[in-house]
Design goal:
CATH architecture of the largest domain: 3-Layer(aba) Sandwich
Length: about 425
């Protein structure tokens, strides 16, 4: 206990002292930093975690600053008009600051771009995407953990995660069901987008689970397709293709997203489009797992479809989905230093947790027998029941087998994964 208290005190001390210990900086940048520090209290919603950093290059006259993806996503409307006052044309030498109001999350999530000129005048662009400088997001602003020399203020410390990509082996399964299955695993980010590396790790973790499940089943029973990067723009085509020849199709997606929308291979796909595809194949049963920000918004769009068995999402409609978190300390409640129960995982918090739950269930004869029995009772596919139970296991809600919440972002109240199962 004493060691834990000492560690916590040390972290708090660093949080309080380090913002004032910046390296030697140009006088004009120091002046801009003081202006930003003065206005921050009025720009941060009460109870929000935040990290504020500066862009290291000074902006010259004529530079344009706006937010990535400036076209609004409004109720799935393609070509919606962009918000007003979302672009700044620099009229004097200036500095750009990024106020991240949901550090460690995929996008979209709240951010503010602050531009401070040499005269002391400043402008703020609020939004949900990273700032662009002359229509390009600078690489240093894409980093999920800004370098300490660029930090000016924060109230949360996120330890850069480490872990090992799991290659699970699942005990052989002798199915007593005859339906053909397909599992489509989608990684929607392009290499130029922020959190690309975390998204790739997330994708690989789920893909490895899908392949292990396929290999545990009799040969030819389960097909697995990985859809990656630019190819993710054709996700709906893949679903159509498998729905024509398989009785059960499971779709997992990791990508950036917004309300009722997910960005795949640089192309926005909307909830109504997935709904249209799923309803077009009434004889196929579907499972849909979505790991993007605001993914909970898809639940109400899909839970009225007769052949939709499960809709599982990383968060609620108004929340962000967290990347991998191993450790977290914040000056926002809960204040204690918190470690992830499965810190050796990789990929987004929710996905890695549900993968670990599924692997545990599949390799425990008692648990998997219960899953199979319940699937018979409720007349639903075994894989649907498996992911429903894995969702509970990930959050420590399947007693007596799973009581530890593996999703650190949920433990701290950052996100609440959502679950729809048609038989409940």
């Amino acid at each position: 206990m004493r060691k834990a208290l000492i560690t916590t005190f040390a972290v708090v001390l660093l949080l309080l002292i380090l913002p004032g210990c910046l390296p030697k900086l140009p006088k004009d940048l120091k002046a801009a930093i003081e202006i930003v520090k003065a206005i921050l209290p009025g720009e941060i919603p009460q109870g929000s975690e935040y990290i504020c950093s500066f862009y290291s290059k000074k902006l010259v006259l004529g530079t344009t600053i706006d937010l990535e993806n400036p076209s609004a996503i409004v109720d799935g409307a393609i070509g919606a008009t962009s918000a007003t006052n979302n672009k700044i044309v620099v009229t004097e030498p200036s500095y750009l600051f990024l106020l991240d109001l949901d550090p460690g999350s995929f996008f979209a999530h709240p951010v503010k771009a602050i531009v401070v000129g040499d005269s002391g005048q400043y402008r703020i662009i609020p939004g949900k995407w990273l700032p662009r400088v002359d229509e390009v997001v600078p690489d240093e602003l894409k980093l999920p953990f800004p370098k300490k020399e660029r930090l000016i203020d924060w109230n949360v410390v996120l330890k850069e995660p480490s872990g090992i990509l799991k290659n699970p082996v699942i005990d052989k399964i002798i199915p007593d069901w005859g339906e053909g299955e397909a599992i489509i695993v989608v990684q929607g980010l392009l290499s130029s987008e922020p959190l690309y590396e975390d998204s790739v790790q997330t994708y690989m973790q789920f893909l490895n689970l899908a392949k292990a499940y396929r290999d545990a089943m009799p040969e030819g029973t389960v097909e697995v397709q990985g859809v990656f990067g630019e190819d993710a723009a054709n996700t709906l085509t893949s679903i159509n293709s498998y729905a024509l020849k398989k009785e059960i199709v499971t779709v997992y997606i990791i990508a950036h997203g917004d309300t009722d929308a997910v960005k795949l291979g640089g192309v926005w796909h909307f909830a109504w489009q997935f709904s249209t595809v799923f309803t077009s194949y009434p004889l196929t049963e579907f499972n849909f797992l979505l790991g993007s920000c605001h993914s909970g918004s898809f639940v109400d769009d899909l839970n009225t479809i007769d052949n939709m068995r499960t809709v599982l999402t990383a968060c609620r409609e108004q929340e962000g989905a967290s990347s991998d978190m191993d450790q977290r300390y914040s000056l926002v409640s809960p204040y204690e230093l918190m470690n992830d129960f499965n810190s050796t995982d990789v990929g987004s918090e929710w996905t890695s947790s549900i993968v670990e739950g599924a692997i545990g269930i599949l390799n425990d004869s008692t648990q998997f027998t219960l899953v199979r029995a319940d699937s018979v009772i409720y007349n639903v596919p075994v894989i649907s029941m498996l992911f429903c139970k894995a969702h509970l296991a990930a959050l420590g809600n399947w007693t007596p087998y799973y009581t530890d919440n593996l999703d650190l972002s949920n433990r701290i109240g950052k996100s609440v994964p959502q679950k729809y199962c048609s038989w409940e």
